[in-house]
Specification:
By secondary structure, the chain is an all-alpha fold. 77% of the residues lie in helices and 0% in strands. Helix 1 packs antiparallel against helix 4.
Amino acid sequence: MASTEAPRGLRAAAIIALIEGAALVAYGLYVLVQVARLGITGPAPVSSVQSVTLEIIIFLFLGAGLLVAGWGLWRVRRWGRAPAVLGQLLGLIVGVPLVGAVGSVERIAGIAVVIMSIGALVCLFLPSTTRALVEE
């Protein structure tokens, strides 16, 4: 199937994965820049070189993975669905506890992540999406 013939659900899932991936990469780069500018700040138990390095690596790799998955979905490639589903499940694991957070910013972020993850999962398992990926 040519990429111009992709069903709307598949396009929507690809766009969501691309947005999430870009946001994760942007946050990883933001943390990197902040550490370079200000140094490592915050409570001692979570503010070590190792923990900040791991945080940056996790955000950059998860973001890059979602960008690749979104690109694969946009091009109607079957291999893009599995990493996209994994990314959405991780989004739910992170987003659901944030919905019950005390701070309003955290709560809004959690709601946004949950809505995007559920929307992407629904789109990824629509019959039209499955047909398009099987016919690839």
